[in-house]
Structure formats: C-alpha cells, structure tokens
Amino acid sequence: MPSTIEHTIEPVFDKRSRVLVLGSIPSPKSREQGFFYGHPQNRFWRALAAVFDEPVPRTVEDKKDLLLRRGIALWDVAASCEIEGASDASIRNVVPNNLKLILETADIQAVFCTGAKAGQLYARLCEKDLGMPAATLPSTSPANAKTTLPQLVQAYRNALSPYTASSENAPVLDVADVVRLEREIAKRGTPLALLMERAGCFLAHRAQRMAEKQISIEENALLNENDQIMDNARPEDRPRFIVLCGNGNNGGDGWVAARDLAENGQHVTVVCNVMPNEISAQPARDAAQAAKRVLETLPHALILATPTQEQLHEALSQADVCIDALLGTGFEGSHVRPPFDAWIAAANEQRARGMLTIAADVPSGLSAQTGKAATPCVKADETVTMIVSKPGLETPFAFAFCGTVSVAPLAYIDPILDEKKESALAKPRAASANDRTLDENDEKAAASDKRTAHAEAKRPTDRNNEFLRAEAEDDDGYDPYSDRRPEPEPLFQRDPWS
Ligand SMILES: NC(=O)C1=CN([C@@H]2O[C@H](COP(=O)(O)OP(=O)(O)OC[C@H]3O[C@@H](n4cnc5c(N)ncnc54)[C@H](O)[C@@H]3O)[C@@H](O)[C@H]2O)[C@@H](O)CC1
Ligand SMILES: [K+]
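Above: the input record for the complex with NAX. Below: its predicted structure, written as tokens.
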C-alpha cells in the first residue's frame, strides 16, 4: 500500500555552496535517522568520502561538516509524495521542494541528481522553474547493484570536482592563531574532543592508505575500496601499525587513531610513556582512556607502556607503518627530552629499514612555527597536519622531516576566517597593534599565550595577519599582543611537567 510522506529533513547549504545534489525523497531509514542517505548499505557517504579522500563521516554533524566544507548543498526533489517503502519506482503525486530557496542564497553552478528517478522528477517539476538542467549520477542505493563503489566514486568525482573547494588557497596560520581558531570552532559548537576524534580518524585513514601502498596492492583497487580490501586480507597478511603516543594532546590524536585502526580490524601496538589516566592534558586524557578501554578488548591490539629500548626496538621492527604522535605544537626547546629522544632515534632507524612514518600534526621535534628541527627529530613520509597548515611546515628545509604535508580538515572554518577578515577590513587599523615589528609581536604574543612560547624565531610569514589583526581589535577587547589583558583561558589543561 502506498503511503503519503512529507519531507521533514532540513536542506544543508550556505552561501558558499557551489553545487546542488538532489535525491528523490528520504528513505524510511533516513527519515528515522533524521538525515539524508541514512541506510547503512547506502553508499552515498562512502562515495563522497572517497571522492575527497577523507574518512567516512559517521555522525550527522560529521556529514554536515563535510558537505559545507566542500561546497555541496544537499536536498531532495520531493517535498511530499506517495511511495511504497523505499521504492523509487512507486513514487507518485510529487509536490516538489522549493529549491529556489537554495539558489537565492548560494551561487549554485551545477545540479546533480542521485539516481534516475530524482533526475526525471527534477526535469519534470523543477528544471524550468530553476532555469538549470541537472545531470543524473548513478544511484548510491544498494538496489543499484550493477554500479560498484569504485564506479560510483569515479562518477561522483568527475561530477563534483570542478565545483568543489580546492586546497590551492588553503590558509597557513601561525600556531597561536590555530589555538584561537580551535577555540572559536569550539565556541560555535564543535568541541575540542570532537576535533580530536576527527584528527585521530583522519590519521588512521591516511595510515591505512599508506599501508595499502606499502603492501603494494594494486593501485586502482585500493583507491576506492580500501575497506573491503583490508577486510578480505588474511589476518597474517594485514599490515602492522605502531602508534607512538606522547603525554599531551598530540598523544591524544594517536590514541584515537590507534582505537580507530583496531576497530577496523588492524594490528595495532600503542607505545606510551604514561597510562591514559596519568595524562593531564585534556581532551587527550578522556580520549586516551576511552581508546584504552576499546583496545583492551581486541586481540589484535597491544598497549606497550614504558618499554625498554629492546622492547621498543622489537615492536618497531615488526611495524609496517608508524604513527608519530609524540609531540605536536606544544613541543618546545632545541632538544627532545628522554625517553622520547631515544624513541625518535629508534623510529628513524626503522624508517631507514623500510617502515613508513606518518606524523600527527607535525613531526615530533620540529617547531610547527619556525620549521626548526630539534635533536633528534622524527623523519616522516607524510605529515597530517590538523585544521590548517602552519608556517614551519611550509619552509623548504622542513620537507626533509615532514615528507608530504596533507591537511586534515577537521571543521568548517571558512565562515570564521571570512568573518575575521571582514572585521579586519571594516575596522581602522590599530596603530599600536599593527605597527609593531614582528619580533615585538612575537614577544607580546608569547607573553599573552603560553602556546606561543616555543615560537623561538621570527614569524617567517605575515601572510595571515588579517586573522591576527581581527583578533587584536575584536570588540570583546582581546588583544593577543597586549599584556594589559588577563591571560586567555587555557585551551587545554597543560602538562605539569612542561
Ligand atoms: N585539543 C584539540 O582539540 C586538538 C588538539 N590537537 C592536537 O594537540 C596538539 C597540541 O597539544 P598540546 O598543546 O597538548 O601539546 P603537545 O601534545 O604537542 O605537546 C605537549 C607535550 O610535549 C611535552 N614536551 C614539550 N617539549 C618537550 C621536549 N623538548 N622534550 C620532550 N617533551 C616535550 C610536554 O611535556 C607535553 O607533555 C596538536 O599538535 C594536535 O596534534 C588536534 O587534535 C586538534 C584538536
Ligand atoms: K607528532
């Protein structure tokens, strides 16, 4: 029996959306979840994540974040219709959604429908009104068994790539600004703990991709169906991951990555110097404690705490991929203190043997601000840096330590950066803040924010000064260069040893 259903899920879009993707009407599973493509067998989110080489978003928040970051508006053609179950073929008496709502806000340059039925309905009910044709993409529904996941990814990639955000003009922000940005992201509803969760999952995703290359599975297959390939591999053929976790929030990223890899069935060894309950930094402590509880239940996961040099050497020598999450932006000084100095030396030795290394945020021992390398410093094949790149990673000599730098886009930051720029342009320049030399700026910033204490040298760039200026002149009175104001609330609980 057909039943009449009303569309109740709000569209996702904003003024930066450039492409509109439309389905027919949400399935019963999606309606139950309150979000698009909610059936676990539907491949929409897997395909989209693969197009952008990101981990598959899990929550509604993760999904919205991905769409907005990538400039994709998402809705359906039908506002109401008669339908039997989830069968597109049975759809009758369609009342279309008012799609103009999106076009009035966003400069939509292309429209795509996710399946033949949505395409037909759009052509019949919406195209004339909107004055834009739509291209039809293969359906991601499990009912469309003839289109494989790699084929879906290819089709969606070809369609979306010309319109979606590129990383060409990606910002590079000073470490102190990244801290302010994280705080602003948190204020707008994405807590630091969620950023850390995403950071860890991104690291795990990149590490798995690296491992696939390492065990030289055919490039084409691995590009898009990595989950399946990993699942099908015999346990003894699976790659071995080792995660070196420090005592701060960089270590927190590592614990989350280890948990995520282990949950995906991978062999993981976590090496740490303190147990999670002894970590003082937050959100790292909570994230590490939660990860430990999961790891302890999995037979293919191991936690190696305060290892001897021999134990560490043995664990590293069995690893295919090492995630370096010892020290991040909180690293300071020109030498790495024990025991991490020896851990770094051992990891570099194993990299020379063929192990691949992926650094969380910044190679441990490298200043994310200046690019200066301490003794010793991790040499990575890839650095997955969080939210935005930092100046130290962009210096030519940092390449030897960072390898390829990829940015994990943990949150939708464009509105925040644009607002900061706008407020910087709208307000007159504050002579006191902007006419200081860079050296003075560094001194003041260091005094007002502990997190810049390790920015030993001059800022190598002032290309993102708009962000700082806007902060300096914000109406809430916060001037990062001024010592007149009380110190900002610390973002993380600091490690008492540092
Ligand atoms: N909290 C959050 O929301 C997020 C945090 N992120 C991660 O947090 C990191 C920054 O975290 P923290 O500020 O806690 O700092 P880190 O974890 O980078 O470093 C602090 C730790 O390093 C130790 N340390 C400093 N200098 C040392 C030296 N010379 N030798 C040996 N040990 C030294 C300190 O004792 C402390 O334990 C980022 O790099 C990033 O990886 C990311 O997850 C993004 C989100
Ligand atoms: K690191």
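Notes for the reader.
The CA atoms of residues 12 and 74 lie 5 Å apart.
Residues 217-229, 429-498 have pLDDT under 50 and may be disordered.
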